[in-house]
Amino acid sequence: MKKATFIFNFDSREDAKIVAESLKPEIRHKIPKAYVEAEFSGKTFILYVKAEDISTLRAACNSYLRWVNTVLNVKKIV
After folding, report:
1. Neighbours of 41 (CB within 10 A)
2. DSSP label at 65?
3. Which of 8, 16, 25, 52 lies at a 20 to 30 A Cα distance from 76?
């Protein structure tokens, strides 16, 4: 099994919570052949991605990183 871990350290607990809450539906939805977990503690948000093969891992990582980026961009605008 292939694995990737992303650790995001935010300036505030609120920012980390916004990202964590925004990604909850995507994590529950499940990506085929991939397993995703997330942790949120204080100002830190950690994303764990596991997949059977490297191409699935890459696709899942790209999706979740894009969603994190989208959340942060929307937060800047609002």
Report:
1. 10
2. H
3. 25
Q: What is the pLDDT of residues 14-63, one digit of tens each?
A: 999 999 999 999 999 877 899 999 999 999 999 999 999 999 999 999 99
Find out whether 67 and 19 touch, Cβ atoms under 8 Å: no
Sign of CA pseudo-dihedral 39, 45, 46, 51 = positive
Strands, E assignment, the chain: 2-9, 34-41, 44-51
For each of the domains in the chain, give its residue range(s) and CATH number, in order of start.
Answer: 2-77 (3.30.310.50)
Whose tokens are 């099994």? That residue is 1
pLDDT of the residue at 32:
85
